[in-house]
């Protein structure tokens, strides 16, 4: 599937050529890194607040660079987007998440794995067709995290494509809610089942006066729209307690676990089960 996806990437070389020197070098390395298997998915669990159960996890990409060590996505995803490498990179993450999901299933853990999808891919028909084919042909339970800002770019095609994802069982989550451009008009139309409150509001939850109000009204809004709420960036027991009282459905953050490599994640799940 990836060899096939590669044929569609003809404009990539041109896009890379147009980048400033440093970004160009990084993009060329990244192009090779995908084939060389230098990209890895780390996983961070999402815990159901009331049931205290791990029901899903988010895949967060890292680049295991041969000389520079582990590079975080903030340092290469923007370049991948500019260089038009993001389609191939994301198809790789979906393929990897499907493979990891099967391994988890065999180890007795049935979790939904969420993948981050860059905004520009929501109006990329080749991406959408390939992603749907991969997911529809697998038994994996997946979810896609997309920001609201990315929908506002090209709402008509983004909403139609999110609906196609939802139709084949992909759970759509709105990422970074409250941090970017928000529009209640779009929120209402999105086939999203989850809303993730940006960690900007969560990390200061117990030290600011306004953030608790914002978080509580966001939780109520999401519930009114029949969506589940995930709080990201939960770092303290105090935040966890407050979020639980406010009716937040799911918790994600360093308090539970940092994003960790797949094998460590399997160990984490096994130990959690015996807790
Ligand atoms: P995001 O999707 O909002 O992911 C949450 C980020 O917060 C992650 O950073 C995660 O490690 C970090 N985080 C988790 N829990 C806590 C916490 O309790 N406190 C704090 N301070 N931070 C926490 P990371 O892994 O560096 O990823 C950064 C961003 O890169 C992601 O933000 C996402 O936008 C993007 N990204 C990651 N993986 C992918 C990918 O496979 N594809 C695409 N397109 N983007 C990705
Ligand atoms: Ca995310
Ligand atoms: Ca987020
Ligand atoms: Ca973010």
From TrEMBL:
Query: Care to name a GO molecular-function term for this sequence?
Result: cyclic-guanylate-specific phosphodiesterase activity
The EAL domain covers 23-273
Protein name, UniProt field: EAL domain, c-di-GMP-specific phosphodiesterase class I (Or its enzymatically inactive variant)
- The species this protein was found in: Sphingomonas palmae
The part of the entire sequence present here spans 133 to 407 of 427
């Amino acid at each position: 599937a990836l060899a096939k996806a590669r044929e569609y990437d003809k404009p990539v070389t041109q896009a890379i050529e147009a980048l400033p020197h440093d970004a160009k070098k990084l993009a060329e390395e990244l192009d090779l890194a995908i084939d060389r298997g230098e990209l890895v998915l780390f996983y961070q669990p999402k815990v159901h607040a009331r049931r205290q159960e791990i029901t899903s996890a988010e895949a967060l990409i890292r680049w295991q660079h041969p000389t520079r060590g582990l590079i975080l996505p903030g340092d290469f995803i923007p370049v991948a987007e500019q260089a038009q490498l993001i389609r191939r990179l994301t198809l790789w993450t979906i393929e990897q998440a499907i493979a990891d999901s099967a391994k988890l299933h065999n180890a007795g853990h049935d979790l939904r794995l969420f993948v981050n999808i860059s905004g520009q891919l929501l109006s990329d028909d080749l991406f959408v067709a390939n992603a749907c084919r991969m997911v529809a042909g697998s038994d994996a339970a997946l979810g896609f995290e997309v920001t609201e800002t990315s929908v506002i770019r090209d709402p008509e095609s983004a909403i139609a494509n999110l609906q196609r994802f939802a139709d084949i069982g992909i759970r759509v989550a709105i990422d970074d809610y409250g941090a970017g451009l928000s529009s209640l008009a779009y929120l209402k139309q999105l086939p999203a089942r989850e809303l993730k409150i940006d960690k900007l509001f969560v990390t200061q939850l117990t030290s600011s006066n306004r953030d608790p109000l914002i978080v509580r009204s966001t939780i109520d809004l999401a519930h009114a729209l029949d969506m589940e709420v995930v709080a990201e960036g939960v770092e303290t027991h105090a935040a966890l307690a407050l979020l639980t009282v406010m009716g937040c459905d799911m918790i994600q953050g360093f308090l539970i676990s940092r994003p960790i490599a797949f094998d460590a994640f399997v160990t984490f799940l096994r130990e959690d089960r015996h807790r």
